[in-house]
Amino acid sequence: MHPWSAPAVPQLPGRGGPVRVHDTSTGELQVAAPGPKARLYVCGITPYDATHLGHAATYLAFDLLQRAWRDSGLQVRYAQNVTDVDDPLLERATRDGVDWRELAASQVDLFASDMEALRVLPPDAWVGAVEAIPRIAATVRAMLARGAAYTLAPEEGCEHGDVYADLSADPGFGAVAHLAREQMLALSAERGGDPQRPGKRDPLDPLLWRAAREGEPHWDGGTLGAGRPGWHVECTVIAADDLGSGFDVQGGGSDLAFPHHEMSASHGAVLYGPPFAGVYAHAGMVGLDGEKMSKSKGNLVLVSRLRAAGVEPAAVRLAVLAHHYRSDWSWTQAGLDDAAERLVRWRAAVAVGGDSEQDAVLADLRARLADDLDAPGALAVLDAWASTALAAPGGAESGQRADLVADAVDALLGIAL
Ligand code: 5CA
Ligand code: ZN
Questions:
Q1: Radius of gyration of the chain (CA)
Q2: Are 252 and 284 in contact (CB under 8 A)?
Q3: Mean pLDDT by 10 residues, the chain (417 residues)
Q4: Which phi and psi (to 5°) does residue 249 adopt?
C-alpha cells in the first residue's frame, strides 16, 4: 500500500542519547534499540471506521519513538500492517450493505489523510493483510509441517477445516503479557478468540487459517484449501518479512498485549526462534466519558471530524502529547482548548525568544523523550521556557526568533511553530 507523505524533519545539532522505553514483557525500561539500525513494527488499523483519538494517540506515541531514535542517530525501518480483511470489517460491511473492499479502501484513505495532517512519519512498509495472503498461507503450511498447528474437522458445508496454532509447541508461551490462565481465557473470548470452540487442543489455541464459508471472501491457500488468514499470524508474517524476526520494538495499544502480541510472538518463536521482538511497548487506552473509545462501542471522537470542524491538527497533536503515552486517559474539549492556548503561547515565545537558553531546552527535551517518551515532561520544559522568554525577551537581541527551539519542537514533537 502507498503510505501517506512524510513531513520534513529538521536536523538538529548534536545527538540525543539512547532511548529507553517500557517493555511489557519484562516490566522494565529498556534501551529499545542498540543500533545502528532500529526496527519498529506497530500494529495498524482494521479499516472499518475512521481514525479516532485512541488510534491517533497510539500512532503518535510510536511517532515520538521514531523521532527520538532518528535524533539519536539510528537508522529506522518502520513497518505497519492494515487488517484489511477480518471479521469486524466484514460484519460492518454486511451491516451497512457496502462492499467490504470499498469500506476498507475508504477508511484506509481517511486514516492516511488523518496521519498526514497530524504529521505522523509514515511507515517504510505499509502492508495490507490481503496482499500478504500468499505469504501467510505459506507460513501456516510451514507451521503445520513442523507440528506447531493442526486442522479441525471441516464444518458442515466446508471442504476444508480451520487451522489452529498448537500453543503447546511453544515452551515460552505467555512471556509477553505474563497473565494467569483464567485471565488469558477471559481476554481471548473478549478480543476475537474462540475459547469455547469444541475440538481445539487448548481453548487458547488461536486461529491461523479460516476455511472458506459461503458468502465470505476467500483466497487459495494451496494445501490449506480456500480460506482467509487469522489475525495474529498476519502480523507475525508482515513484521518478519519486512524487518526480520528479532526486530527491536513491537508496538500497539495495551489492548493488543494479549492475545494479539502474545500470539504473534508465539508464532514467531515457533517459526524463527525467540524472541520475536526485543521490546513490547504498549500505549494506554484513550477513553471518552470514562469508557474506552472503541469502534464497537461507537463512542468516538474522530480526527477527521475535528479537522472538518476547523481544529488545527497541531492542537490535536499537542492535546494528545499532554498525556504520557502509557497512561489511560479521557479526551476532553478542555484538553483541546488547553492545547490550542499552549500553541499560541509557544508561537509567541518562539517569535521573540532568540536570545534565550535554546541549547538547554534542546538538551532537556532530548532527556525527557529518551526517558520512556515523556512528552508531558517535554511540554513542561517548553512551558517553562516560554514563560521566561515571554517575560523577558530582553537585551539587544530582543525580538529574534528562537529557531533552534522551533526546530527541536518540530523534529522531536512533530509540531511546527
Ligand atoms: N488491526 C488491529 C491490529 S493488527 C487493530 O487492533 N486495529 S484497530 O483499528 O482496532 O486499532 C488500531 C490501533 O489503535 C491498535 O494499535 C490499537 O491498540 C489502538 N487502539 C484502539 N483503540 C484504542 C484506544 N481507545 N486508545 C488507544 N489506542 C487504541
Ligand atoms: Zn497486529
A1: 23
A2: no
A3: 97 98 98 96 94 95 98 98 96 95 97 98 98 98 98 94 98 98 98 96 98 96 98 98 98 98 98 97 92 79 95 98 97 96 97 92 98 98 96 65 97 98
A4: -135, 130
Task: Report the distance separating Cα 350 and Cα 337, nearest Å.
Answer: 20
Copy the grid coordinates of residue 267.
508464532
Burial class (CB in 10 A: 0-12, 13-18, 19+), 102: exposed
pLDDT of 360:
97
> DSSP E strands: which ranges in 119-213?
125-128, 149-151, 163-165, 207-211
Q: Dihedral sign, CA of 209, 131, 240, 52?
A: negative
CA 255 to ligand 1 centroid distance, Å: 7
- Nearest C-alpha neighbor of 293 from the set 44, 54, 48, 107: 54
The answer to whether the beta carbons of residues 415 and 318 sit under 8 Å apart is: yes
User: What is the CB < 6 Å shell around ligand 1?
Assistant: 43-46, 54-55, 57-58, 81, 83, 235, 252-253, 255-256, 283, 285-286, 292-294
For residue 351, with 0-12 CB atoms within 10 Å meaning exposed, 13-18 middle and 19 or more buried, which class applies?
middle
Ligand 1: residue of 58, 110, 320 to mutate (most ligand atoms within 8 A of CB) is: 58
Contact 179, 191 (CB under 8 A): no
146: phi then psi, degrees, rounded to nearest 5? -95, 15
Q: Is this prediction's pTM over 0.70?
A: yes
Burial class (CB in 10 A: 0-12, 13-18, 19+), 113: middle
Q: Name the residue among 289, 295, 269 with its Cα closest to residue 280.
A: 269
Specify whether the CB–CB gap between 23 and 249 falls below 8 A.
no
Strands (E), 74-151: 75-82, 125-128, 149-151
